[in-house]
């Protein structure tokens, strides 16, 4: 198997094929509904979950970087965002080519669960370190892999500046997030990550069964569009704020992150260390600020 057909954000027609090809974001399933003393049969829509293998090639050498469980769709953005979070791709120019794998033994059938990435020649990456025995689940990502030292080694500095945000804007974010979660509305089973400007205007939203995948897709969208760093924006995630999610915001230069649910202790420590305004329990016109409150206008 090899990839010989470039698709995705580096090719406009390929991006359309990515959206249409492979498994959809939601699938139908037969269910039996038990309601009191009655039961009936109907079809339900489930959030799709499929493995995605990311293969990276540099200087003529190829390695499997990771396998992650994800919701199909925006796969190239997911790959780009993951490479950015890993410190491999700083910008779009670092990715020379992305393509789904082609299986010639099956009449050039595209394998939508394998993406091959060619790094640009000038990218200095030790891809041999990728080939390690881990499996990224949709639930938690690569737990414990990142640390403060790793982010500092990658050249991440504490975030300064950023927008000053009106609490009214923050209050409005959960409803805007919910209104734009198209697949969640159909399945009830997806996480979301959304990017807003300081006025509360929605710029992009991505969904996935994995909260870290949803944010990787969002960061990948920004990377491939030449929008990084996101220094004048804020991100909201539909669940809790984990260490890994804050790490991805730090890498992308996001100065403010909001979560519908609770942050973890390590997430708060990381946000304080790198100057991220971390907001949790954002619901019903109430929220907690866990770090860098100076970016939020006092009521």
Tags for this model:
8 helices, 299 residues, four-stranded mixed sheet, six-stranded mixed sheet, Cytidine Deaminase, domain 2, 2 domains, alpha/beta, Ubiquitin-like (UB roll)
Question: What do these coordinates show?
Answer:
Helix 8 links the parallel strand 10 and strand 11 (277-280). Helix 2 (75-85) packs across helix 6, helix 6 (211-224) packs parallel to helix 7 (243-252) and helix 7 (243-252) runs parallel beside helix 8 (265-274). With 299 residues, the chain is α/β, with parallel strands linked by helices. 43% of the residues are buried. The chain is built from 8 helices and 12 strands. The model is unreliable at 1-23 and 137-146 (pLDDT under 50). The chain is 27% helix and 30% strand. The chain has helices at residues 12-20, 75-85, 148-153, 167-180, 182-187, 211-224, 243-252, 265-274, and strands at residues 26-35, 38-47, 50-58, 61-70, 95-103, 109-119, 191-197, 202-208, 233-237, 256-259, 277-280, 288-291. It has 2 domains: 8-41 and 46-138, Roll (Ubiquitin-like (UB roll)), CATH 3.10.20; 167-295, Cytidine Deaminase, domain 2 (3-Layer(aba) Sandwich).
